[in-house]
Amino acid sequence: MANNITIVELAAALGLSKSTVSRAFRDSDDINPKTRERILQKATELGFSPNLYASNLRGNKSHTIAIIIPEFGNKFFSQAIKGIEWVARSNGYHVLIYVTDHSAEKEADIIRTLVNGRVDGVIMSGSGEGSNHEYLKLLENNKVPLVFFDRYYEDVPTACITGNDFDSSYKATKHLISNGSQRIAYLAVNKDVSIGKIRMEGYKKALQEAKLSVDERLILDTSNEVHVNFSDIKRLIEEQHPDAIFASVERLAMSTIRVAKELRLTIPNDLKLICFSCLDIADMLQPSLSVVKQPAYEMGIQATTQLFDILCGRKPDGIRELVFLDSELIFQNSSRKT
Known about the structure:
alpha/beta, 40% helix
């Protein structure tokens, strides 16, 4: 809820100036401790909570950074947040976490709330929606540096820490081919977002090198919604009869396993499967799941280190720089020839 009382009204109720009240909340040395105590007591009594991040408080830093992610329900993001939070805490900073639900509109709304001095910097994995990212210029205009991790926007000049997705996808697809697969389907959620495009390009290169045709009917661009992607994957399997599936996100691999069960297909005999995933229990599944495991924690650490390099003046802001971290390919029973 918004405050029902302003700092001006609080000052009036105390018979003090607004600047005196402001100094009390900034814990300034030039205010009498008894006066400060009286102000804080009155603020509590009237239910006033100051915006400690407001830009008009003499330009003080908030010592807070924002993390903007497209979703929570993904082990990758929880591990990345751990890395971000560790570096932030080591530098005496706090973090605020915002979730866009893969919506560019929601992402833009979040950005607009962050340019009033609420945070000193932003670390973001893009929502993946839309091609117009003009709203991100608000950060630049308000001198709030931005660093991307995992997903980035090609039209935004800033640093990004991401995985070596092209190489990983290429190797994962080659693995499926070497295990006898000829009709390999590629599943994506928004194949036009940075990681979706790059992962698909690696998949296509492996097919072309093996003299296998790139069949667009085997490339599925589906939804994050489980009931939608389940239906889409089921239709793909029934109509196109792939012998392997390469899922660019973990969620689609889980839906593939459910579809296979419903259609009474066995993995890997009828359908081989591999996916990008940070799932800790991939080896516990039956059969054990082959994964491209991204260095999510390290990605979070490096993105935050880049941000603090900018905040501390060690690096300039607004310079495009892509840093690629190696993923680990763990080939298990779901993709192997039996």
